Amino acid sequence: MTEKRIVVLTGAGISAESGVRTFRDNNGLWEEHAVEDVATPRAWLRDAGVVWRFYQARRRQLLEVEPNGAHVALANLQSKFEHVTLVTQNVDDLHERGGSTEVIHMHGELRTLRCEASGRNEVRMQTQDLADDFLFCTCCELPSRLRPDIVWFGEVPMQMSEIYNAVESCDLFIVVGSSGHVYPAANLVHAANQNGAHTVLVNLEHPINADAFKEIHIGKAGELLPRLVEEWTSNRS
Ligand code: APR
């Protein structure tokens, strides 16, 4: 039997039990911050200081949170199957710290910052990189200001052709902790269904695209995912 090809797409819900706020739950980030004030290119042009301080606070929070059982369960899944593509909408580094490798961050990452002149990104997570002053690149002769390495609303998500290639050829497509509000991520389950993949959802409540999933598990990812991965990998060495 050919090796099963698996694609996992995670959203903010997988990091919720680590203490990272989601976006659209009660007390979510978008309840306190208007998207257009902190997560759009226009916001950056209009008042870069407000945007910068919003992301610096979220970058500092990375030092205070730890991966939870759901992140570790996905790392276990990757270790047991050869073809697991892990795609995340999250910008935290909890998948990597939970043991996952080759994570595709389609909405960017908090750990890295992007040079406004060259577009190159660099990891900047030292103490001196986490204050509220703007930071400057190390790649240009005359250092240029760095911006958050985040895909803002209206910008193009990363590595979409790689993501669609994986989704259109997978046997199993699993979504964990996403409300299905944001495209193109919310469209991936439809692409998986079109290719005949089995589609599984693990989420605290029914998201708006719940009908697209063949199998649904409602509950906390930190509790459900370790058991599900145990089940999916039980007959594998
Ligand atoms: N376990 C499983 N699911 C959970 C948990 C949990 N412990 N806690 C919350 N959830 C679910 C919520 O029910 C919700 O459906 O996770 C989902 C989180 O949805 P959102 O806050 O909308 O986050 P997400 O779907 O990742 O948002 C997508 O929108 O704002 C942009 O770029 C941002 O990447 C983000 C994108």
Question: Helix and strand layout, with pairings?
Answer:
Elements: E1 5-10, H1 13-16, H2 29-32, H3 35-38, H4 41-46, H5 48-61, H6 69-80, E2 83-88, H7 94-97, E3 104-105, E4 108-115, E5 121-123, E6 146-150, H8 160-167, E7 172-176, H9 188-194, E8 198-203, E9 215-218, H10 221-233
Parallel strand pairs: 1-2, 1-7, 2-3, 7-8, 8-9
Antiparallel strand pairs: 4-5, 4-6
Helix pairs in contact: 6-10
The chain binds adenosine-5-diphosphoribose.
Sheet-strand content, in percent, reads: 15-25%
Give the CATH architecture of the largest domain: 3-Layer(aba) Sandwich
> What is the C-alpha radius of gyration, as a whole number of Å?
18 Å
Question: Helix coverage percent of residues?
Answer: 25-40%
The tally of beta strands, per DSSP, is 9
Helix count?
Answer: 10
**CATH class identity of the largest domain:** Alpha Beta
Bound molecules: adenosine-5-diphosphoribose
Low-confidence stretches: none
Short description:
The chain has about 240 residues and is of the alpha/beta class.
Supply database-style keywords.
237 residues; alpha/beta; Rossmann fold; 2 domains; six-stranded parallel β-sheet; three-stranded antiparallel β-sheet; 9 strands; 32% helix; binds adenosine-5-diphosphoribose
Molecular structure report:
By secondary structure, the chain is of the alpha/beta class. The chain has two domains: 5-20 and 66-107 and 157-234, Rossmann fold, CATH 3.40.50.1220; 21-64 and 115-150. It contains ten helices and nine strands. The strands form two sheets. The chain has a six-stranded parallel sheet, with helices on both faces. The chain has a three-stranded antiparallel sheet with strand order 5-4-6. The longest helix has 14 residues, at 48-61. The protein starts with a strand and ends with a helix. The model has no long low-confidence stretch (mean pLDDT 97). Bound molecules: adenosine-5-diphosphoribose (APR). Adenosine-5-diphosphoribose (APR) is lined by residues 11-13, 16-17, 22-25, 28, 89, 107, 177-179, 181-182, 203-205, 207, 220-221.
